[in-house]
Amino acid sequence: MRQNLVKLTADLDPNDIYDQLIEGGVFTFEDKERIDHEVTRADKARELISVLCRKGPRAFGVFRDALKPKYPH
User: Fold this and answer.
1) Is the pLDDT reported for residue 2 higher than 60?
2) pTM, two decimal places
3) For 38, which of 23, 30, 32, 43 could close a Cys bridge (C-beta 3.0–4.6 Å)?
């Protein structure tokens, strides 16, 4: 899990997936604002993962689907 978190925070730009997470009912605009308050892209990615972990079991599937177009690996 830790190795995946390091990879995600190194590669993920939260701006790439906000719309899908909001449309999927996983994130709110308030969640996006909370994440955007972080300074670096890596800190934003870490905060996104932190928020995602509190969103319940369906959140991971929406997150995975949001990643597919920009992060196919």
Assistant:
1) no
2) 0.86
3) 43
